[in-house]
Amino acid sequence: MCTHATLRFAFERLAPESFNGTVLAIDEFHHVxxxxxxxxxxxxxxxxxxxxxVHIVAMTGSYFRGDSVPVLSPEDEAKFTPVTFNYYDQLxxxxxxxxxxxxxxxxxxxxxxxIGEVLDLDKxxxxxxxxVNSGESTKDKLEEVGRIIDVIGHVxxxxxxxxxxxVHRQDTGAILRVADxxxxxxxxxxxxxxxxxxxxxxxxxxxxxxxxxxxxxxEGFDWPFAEHALTVGYRASLTEVIxxxxxxxxxxxxxxxxxxxxxxxxxxxxxxxxKVSVNNMLKAITASLLMEQVLAQNFTFKxxxxxxxx
Length: 310
Description:
single chain; two-stranded parallel ribbon; eight-stranded mixed sheet
């Protein structure tokens, strides 16, 4: 058992026939690319398929990449027996979770002023703030986290051992436990928080209530109690969207519905154009949840400008 990177490095000292008589199971298989010139994992796979009798098991939650390159060439793909277990099969097999909602919410101005409209403090939530390079970002990620916490309530203190922030809700006064994975100025503190989330949050429903992240808590992150994935800013990569949705589609007692909400700056277009574009995005996401290899249309959302905007 090893990471993709370890497999790639080990393969530099192995011949393809070393895999004779073995099973090679690769998880997160969408990291493979049919472009073997640029993908070392793709080249490795091609070599062992052609040079050994290895049995390959390919596993992924999203059988497509974020770019336009296919995962496998058609001739290589034909050698596999596909087994599709899509999100709808998954929900039908669950005991508690039976529905998944996908929605878009538009805002004007700054997202930190609008996030309170879609942040349900009664739901276990993962908030992904926008990349600092995106148009939705204020370019100060730490201030954005502070503003989101202000929407929740006022800080009661921070646990020195776990880095979990205790926040008094403005509406009810109840204490919410917030994990900040955005602040990377103190690596030890963030490491303590990640360790706590990996061990306590996966077992104890009361360990954490809201996680605020930027590039983390997407692929492979395990928090079965998460009910709502609130993502700020348009994501061009369908793979990233599917990975984020996957964080809230684990079965858990008391969770009958999971929700993905994309909070996007209101586009500078007519309502009709926006409606068509959003419907196309929803169709692309839905088809991707069925594990079909689809590519999103290239949407360019030009944000409306308002008086006083730069």
